[in-house]
Automatic annotation (TrEMBL):
This is Unannotated protein. Its cofactor is Zn(2+). Monomer. CDD domains: EcFpg-like_N. It catalyses: Hydrolysis of DNA containing ring-opened 7-methylguanine residues, releasing 2,6-diamino-4-hydroxy-5-(N-methyl)formamidopyrimidine; 2'-deoxyribonucleotide-(2'-deoxyribose 5'-phosphate)-2'-deoxyribonucleotide-DNA = a 3'-end 2'-deoxyribonucleotide-(2,3-dehydro-2,3-deoxyribose 5'-phosphate)-DNA + a 5'-end 5'-phospho-2'-deoxyribonucleoside-DNA + H(+). Residues 2-119 form the Formamidopyrimidine-DNA glycosylase catalytic domain. GO terms for biological process: base-excision repair. Belongs to the FPG family. The lineage of its organism: unclassified sequences, metagenomes, ecological metagenomes. Residues 247-282 form the FPG-type domain. PANTHER family: FORMAMIDOPYRIMIDINE-DNA GLYCOSYLASE (PTHR22993). Keywords: DNA damage, DNA repair, DNA-binding, Glycosidase, Hydrolase, Lyase, Metal-binding, Multifunctional enzyme, Zinc, Zinc-finger.
Amino acid sequence: MPELPEVETVRRGIAARVVGRKITAVEIGRERSVRRVGREAVIHGLTGATVTQARRRGKYLLFDLDTGEEMMIHLRMSGRVLVEPVGTLRPAHTHVVLSLSSRDGVSDEMWFVDPRTFGEVVVYDPTQIAEVMPELIRLGVDPICDQFDAVVLKARLHGKRGAIKPLLLSQHVIAGIGNIYADEILHRAGLRWNRTADSLTPAQIRRLALCITDVLTDAINAGGSTLDDSQYVDIEGKFGSYQAEHRVYGRDGKRCVTCGKADIARVVAGGRSTAFCPRCQK
Ligand SMILES: [Zn+2]
């Protein structure tokens, strides 16, 4: 599932290739991809609109339109956004096609491709956000696009019970972190997944805040992670490369490259698989 670094990589691609262009036509294949507001609302809301800005909050892609409305795309499990010249063969599971005004003599299309169809495309009036997109209001702090440091993290964890990993995964606490980056962040911070939030010392909170920012930034710089079983690619169809830098995720049974003295262990808790180094993480 794409997490913050993958979604940010897609956002940057769209900012470069799509912002400033007018959507001249909209085609919708699978109704499920536009289930929230329906086919007519998406076609009516996007046709003739120019995309003026590409933003992101957590795993949500948010686009400002010159009509005053906004478009949201969530990739969920298997969604991809691709931009290709008109006439390029569309892959299977291309559910939404936006024709873009030509730039430098080239007419492109932006595709929303989604084999598993958990993802969605929504067009909405931002004044209706509480009704149409309530989850956006409940999102926690975004460690990359918001002010984020140890003080903010401490405040977000204040009064929260339970293990640190589920708190990192909670989009209401911190927006954008999923299973891959939660494991990588906790390994870099030297913290075991089941440490309770209230057991962390001020120094550990400071280190954790730094590791959240650093791991996510490193992953963005690598274009995100593409795993063997995942479909994640950027808008030009290229894989990310951060999977080569994973220290725990997908490495259970292999030697920890940080300490070189223990093998990466794996446990399943709360339905989620967790990889960690028994020696580095306490
Ligand atoms: Zn280790």
